[in-house]
Amino acid sequence: ARCSHSTRPTGWRWCCFMERPLTLTRGSSWAHCSYCHRGATGPWPLTFQLTTRSAMTSKGPEEEHPSVTLFRQYLRIRTVQPKPDYGAAVAFFEERARQLGLGCQKVEVAPGYVVTVLTWPGTNPALSSILLNSHTDVVPVFKEHWSHDPFEAFKDSEGYIYARGAQDMKCVSIQYLEAVRRLKVEGHRFPRTIHMTFVPDEEVGGHQGMELFVQRPEFHALRAGFALDEGIANPTDAFTVFYSERSPWWVRVTSTGRPGHGSLFIEDTAAEKLHKVVSSILAFREKEWQRLQSNPHLKEGAVTSVNLTKLEGGVAYNVVPATMSASFDFRVAPDVDFKAFEEQLQSWCQAAGEGVTLEFAQKWMHPQVTPTDDSNPWWAAFSRVCKDMNLSLEPEIMPAATDSRFIRAVGVPALGFSPLNRTPVLLHDHDERLHEAVFLRGVDIYTRLLPALASVPALPSES
Ligand code: MET
Ligand SMILES: [Zn+2]
Ligand SMILES: [Zn+2]
User: Fold this and answer.
1) Are 321 and 347 contained in the same domain?
2) Domain-located, residue 60
3) One Pfam family name from the record (predicted)?
4) What are phi and psi of 238, to 5 degrees?
5) 137 is catalytic
6) Is 57 within a domain?
C-alpha cells in the first residue's frame, strides 16, 4: 500500500516502519519511504529544538501516522474510574484482533470485568510465552485544571497529545499492538507465542482484574515465561525499567476515647490519641524522606513512603467525638522486614493509649524481584536490545503498585517498562500528555524487543 500522506516538511526523514532513513529529495513535497512506501514519521533522534518539533507535527488527520490516529481513538474511550466503559474497550481490542488476524479470548474474571487476550502464536508451542500486559482503566480527572478535554485526545501544534491515559498506560497498549502489526506485516514469525492482555481494574487495586486472572486456568494456559507491564516516563534521555515494586499497605487507624461537651477538658479523647499515632507515622515519613535525600544512590522506590490521605470523625463543633480515624497509604520497600514493620505500626498504636486499633484495606505481602543480570535470560535479551539501540536504562524499584506484583507473585518474571523518555512524568496529573514522536519511537522499541524476547532459546526448564 502506498502511503497517502502528503506535504511533509523535509525535516521528516526517517521511516519508523523500516527504521531506515528515507531517500528523499530536498525540497520535495512528498516524504514516503522508498522501502515500505509508508509515510515518514521521523526524524529520530529528535533534537527537540522548536524548529524540529514543529517540523514533526502533523497538522491534520490525513498527515498523521496511523499508529498515532489509533492511539488517539483509544484515548477517547472513557475507561475512567470509578465507572469505566469497559465494554467499549473490549470491543476496541476485539476489532484490533480481527484486523491483525490475532486470536482473541475474553475471560470474565468477575461480573462485568473482562480480560481480553490477543494471541500471536509462536512456531514452537513447547516454549513458554511472552506476556504483554496493560490495564485499560484510567484515573479520574479534575477537568477544570486541564487545558483541553482529557477525553478528546487533542494534539497541539507541537505534537503533544493531551489525554487521561496518554502516559498511564493507553500508549503502551497501542505500542504493543502496533509493534506486533509491523512485525506481522513484515512476515516475521518467532518461536515463542506473544500474548497481549488488556485488563480492567488496575487503578483501584486490580482485585477484580489481574489478581483474579492469575489464579484462573485461562492464565495458566497462556504459559507465560516472561512479562512486560507498565513503567513510568523519564524526563531525561534515559528509560526507566522496574524490576520490583514497593508493597501497598493501606492502613486505617481508629482511635476511641471519651466523648463529652466541647467546652470541657475531657480526658482521654480519641483526637489526642489519634494525634499521637499521626505524629509517630509522620515522623517515620520524615526519617525516610531524609534517608532518600541524603543518599544520592537511593531511588524513590528503595525507601518506604507514607502519606496521610484521610481524616474522619466528628459530628459537631461542640461535641467531642468518641471515634476518629486516620488513613495512610504506605508503600513498603521490598527489603523491609514485613513482620517487624507491622509490629512497629502496632506499637505506635499501643503507645498512643487504650482503644487505638488498626486495620488494613490493602496489605501486599509478596514482593518479588526480577533479576537484572545476565543470569536472567529475559533480562539479557531485553538489555541487549536496548544496548543495540543505544538506549540507556535506569533500573529501579517501582514506587507505586502495578499488576506486575500479581504476575511476579505467581512466579513469572516481569519488567515494568513504558518506553517513554524525554517526557515529563504526568501520570495521574492534570494535562497528562505525550509527544507523538515519543509514542512512535516506543513502537520502534517494541518492534526490536519483541523479536528478541520471543526468540529467547529454550530455558533449562523448557528442554
Ligand atoms: C495499591 S492499588 C494500585 C493502584 C495504583 N496503581 C497505585 O499504585 O496507587
Ligand atoms: Zn498504570
Ligand atoms: Zn495509574
Assistant:
1) yes
2) no
3) Peptidase_M20
4) -80, 165
5) yes
6) no
Q: How confident is the model at residue 227 (pLDDT cuts 50, 70, 90)?
A: very high
Residue with the smallest CA separation from ligand 1 atom 2 is 205
Instruction: Specify the CATH number for the domain of residue 145.
Output: 3.40.630.10
Whether residue 139 is found in the same domain as residue 165: yes
User: Which residue out of 178, 202, 403, 444 is catalytically annotated?
Assistant: 202
The residues that bridge with 160 in the sheet, in sequence order, are 435
For 230-252, letters b (16+ CB in 10 Å) and e give bbbbbeeeebbbbbbbbbbbbbb
Label the pairing between strands 319-320 and 260-261.
antiparallel
Residues 6+ apart with CB under 8 A from 375: none
Per-residue cell: 126: 513447547
In angstroms and rounded to an integer, the radius of gyration of the C-alpha atoms of the chain is 25
Query: Ligand 1: does its nearest atom lie under 6 Å from the Cβ of 81?
Result: no
Does one domain contain both 344 and 384? no
- For the record, the C-alpha cell of 7 comes out as 506535504
Question: Is pLDDT above 60 for 372?
Answer: yes
Which protein residue has the closest C-alpha to ligand 1 atom 5?
A: 203
Q: Check pocket membership of 401 for ligand 1, CB cut-off 6 A.
A: yes
Return the pLDDT at 11.
42
Neighbours of 221 (CB within 10 A): 13
Strand order from edge to edge, sheet including 247-256: 305-313, 323-332, 247-256, 356-363
Cα 87 to Cα 429: distance, rounded to the nearest angstrom: 25
Provide ipTM, 2 decimals.
0.97
Q: Concatenated DSSP letters for 136-187?
A: --B----GGG-SS-TTTTEE-TTSEEE-TTTTTTHHHHHHHHHHHHHHHHTT
Residue closest via CA to ligand 1's atom 3 equals 205
Q: Do 423 and 231 form a contact (C-beta atoms < 8 A)?
A: no
Q: Measured in angstroms, how far is the CA atom of residue 427 from the centroid of ligand 1?
A: 12
Residue 237: closest CA among 445, 45, 379: 45
415 backbone φψ class: left, alpha, beta (φ>0; ψ -120 to 50): beta
Centroid of ligand 1 to alpha carbon of 11 (angstroms): 41
